[in-house]
User: Fold these one by one.
Assistant:
Number 1:
Amino acid sequence: MPAPANRLIAVLHQGKPDAADPTIQNAWTLQQDLADALTTLGWQPETVYLDAHFAWIGRLLALQPRLVFNAADLGFFYDITLEPNIAAVLAAAGLRYTGSGAYAAALSGDKYASKVYLAHLGVPVPQCWLPRDAAAAVAPVILKERLGHNSFGLSAASVLEDRAQIETRVQELGADASRYVLEEYIDGEEAVAGFLGNAPRLPMPVFAIDYGASFAGRPKILDYDAKWAPGSDAYEHSTPTLARHPPALAAAIQRSLGLAAEDLGMWDYGRCDFRIRAQADGTQIPYLIDINTNPDLSRDAGMFRMAAAAGLSYADLIGRVVDAALQRQP
């Protein structure tokens, strides 16, 4: 028998313990971490695997949990571009859930449209060009998949240093060109900022990425290996460290984070990544390069690193997310 609905939280996940894909392995670890934390907090967790046959939504409707902890961030059929639709199905089914809705997930996941929108709001962002407009692009640029997260497809070769490289790479893309975006490459410090809650949002301590020896002579980017290949040079030499920013830069980061969260409709928790560019007059401008409405909440991930720096335990972090979601959806 399931626990009473007011104490039952369903953990919706996409993890498999024996998966070759490290993102799917991580999803398995995440659902275990969440279940442990929810138990500590006095909730009754029930894990639900998001299968390809939509049996998962029937199970959720049968359980009628107090809340669905939406940890399914890899998209339907493991297609990351379909991640926003998971929140859409939960909303259509009338189920309360953690994290942002489909609109925020879809807009933030579009690396071109989100930059256009944020620039209109006055948030500093890198210049972006669609491949069809490659002739206007100013090198160096970084070629990214337009939709999705997790650094899929990113490597040192994604940074194009001159006009010839841009033209050659766009030509090689052929019919797939519409899947990509050319983004101004800013060779500066990378900073990661996050928040918890809704009204008000609690800004979390900011971390910077310390790029080590293996990045000498190559672009300093958190590519796929740096995020998902433990033991690789990129992974071992890209270390998050607590940032020590001057007050003006720290305030600018928090302003952009707050605008992105407010105007994209990010709920409960979220993360934004920045590149810092020094100006001729000595000022520093944080350029928002990526938005994640459903960032990893496992014990080894950046959101808990921020929370720990703020004095929160892992259970505290998960409890704050649950409280924010329930206050938003009473």
Number 2:
Amino acid sequence: MILAAGIAGENLSHTWVEVSEERLALNFRALAETVGAATEVLAVVKANAYGHGTELCSVALAKAGARWLGVTSVPEGALIRKALGEAGFDRDSGKAPSILAMCGFLETDTAGMLHHGLTPVVWTVEQVGWLRGLGMGVHVEVDTGMGRQGVRPGPELEALLEEIVGAGLRLGGMFTHFCSSEEGDSALTQAQERRFEQAVAQVKVRGLRPGFVHAGNTSAVDNPVPKAPWLIELAKTVGARAMVRCGLGLYGYCLPIEGDGVSAVRAKVKPVMTWKARILAVRELAEGETVGYGATFAARSPMRVALLPVGYADGLRRELSSTNERPGGWVLVHGMRAPILGRVSMDLTVIDVSRIEGVKTGDEAVLLGEGCTAEDHARLAGTIPYEILCGVSPR
């Protein structure tokens, strides 16, 4: 099943995104099989499901068996709760996934957190105070080396745990976030594991039993040095279930793993998003005619070119532009590569279709998908697939 995301009347749109529900489910199951039945997979759907459509993907993942979803904020969580309810996954049914608001909250978010049944992440005494008396389950983030959010093991964590108990809250989970998951056998990751073990030991001494102990993103699951066995054993020490938090792999991508070893997931997942556009016009260029701002490309011989109604305002990166000396990105037309000519502008992009037979106005061009992946775009743009996917504009 293809879920089309875009403005009303997708079939008439000049540019649109298609999301494969089948591939999304297969990717989720591939990640779950890799970590094994003893480990839960939290499906990360923050940032508009990495550009794929939060509501569409959340429902599809719930159908695929996801019992936890991860979001950034209360508004994201509220949107998902509504979509899940309309799809039959209402909170009273017992089938609705739990939703973890992973990036903290402010006091003004408390009512929304409670109303929509979201699970907050806490790491400060102040945050716990905002939830006092509400009887909610919370997940505590432990900073083991990421240096963004999280409580440090030792006295800071001890004070936080005391406050959680005093506030009548339940410790639903303990987690940390690795900063070097893309390294095959990272000494920094090993140091983070030891710090996290210290934090979990503090919980054990207090006699607390979190529901989940979790660590690791897609790269940690894909890493040839498996984290799941360590995590499972650590969770058992406090009677908890292990969990990993996967985002990029759900949508069909993995970052390269540095060092030796075979990745565990990359060959099993496939891109979920296909971004397409309709050709606006086809024209002939004479030798010497130039294309785009700055006239950075000039035809060396007669050419046939096509115009696409997309540009950097839509998320097609300007770094995919080309000159006569430097090739840029490409799209697929009739299954063949059509190189981008000149500079990608805000709303329009010119492509070379000289070697492709029968191209006409209204034909489809694939901007992103198989044959022209987010990894291809990222390599040319000097960035990572995350940024390419998240950069696809709702326009």
Number 3:
Amino acid sequence: MKENIRVLLFTTAFRPFIGGSELAIENIAKRLPNVFFDILTPRYSLKLPAFERLDNVHIWRIGIGNNKDKWLFPILGVFKAMKLYRRERHALIHVYQASHAAGAALFAKFFIQNIPLILTLQEGEDFKKQSRCKKDIRNFIIRRVDYATAISEYLQHFAVSVNDKLAVQVIPNGVDFKLFSTVIDDDKRHKLRSRLGIAPDDKVIISVSRFVKKNNIETVLKAFAEVVPRFHSKLLLVGDGPLRKELKDMTERFHISDKVIFTGSVDYSVLPTYLQCADVFVRPSLSEGLGTAFLEAMAAGLPIIGPSVGGIGDFLQDGETGLFCVPLDYENIASKISDILKDDNLRSKLIHNGQELIRSKYDWNVIAEKMHTLYSATIRL
């Protein structure tokens, strides 16, 4: 029987919002029934309950119910944390990302003496392009936590470059391997392809992404325009974001609007079905903390194409678990797509190796066990 541990956890966003940190917290928590989490997060909307109970998780949403809550959180979150700590006597504080939530966590640690503070770095931006103010705040936080985890070696190296005395362990984000790897029955897959307007002989390239600059979907469209004359093909873009209209306009300019399918955001539970309707996954991101969308595609049995940026190199070994591409070179990306679509042996090799890697290293069950080991070791020091 594992020991019971109580954790005071700060995060700038949590359910119903879905992102890397949110998925990590929820998936780890539900696999650690002997760890009790008080999760503090900004409220953002009065439609969201101020309190919610989920098995071993209590969610406390703090604030006045609008976007100002993120800025108020470093102060309001501390008052709530102190009240909860007096009642629950948490063993440690854990905060996700060196941002507003970390401000609240640092204040809480100042008032709660002798409690360890763990920071998890999940940031996916290019640190070289961040503002000086943001850089200084992040560095201030990294220099004042007791322990850290990072979702990739890239972020681990960054943290150590800021604070070379900080112990930083790589604990990546994961994938529900069973959910994504379970083969969807042919009838369900054919129905979805038909509903999306995908012909039986179409090769399908898929990208799952928010439509923002860093994910570089514009270059995917340019590459796909090069692929169209070579294969009966469709491009499936799963996601949404501020660049949606710009991307749709690009499909008109490239005369591929009848071959590009914008699905909008889809429920996470049906994402595996969309992935298994495709033949290859591509996203030439300009920066990535890790790249969970790639891991999900690999688990679903897709060969992946991605750039050598951020944490992608942790799991993408060129020619073995995927193919590297040059992020802004659409001809290079088109060539990599063609290589996979015309070479069944290469495709099978990438799929097999990719799924084995996810099963052994990136399944949430493996990740949760690593986090529990860290928690146990931390409170004994």
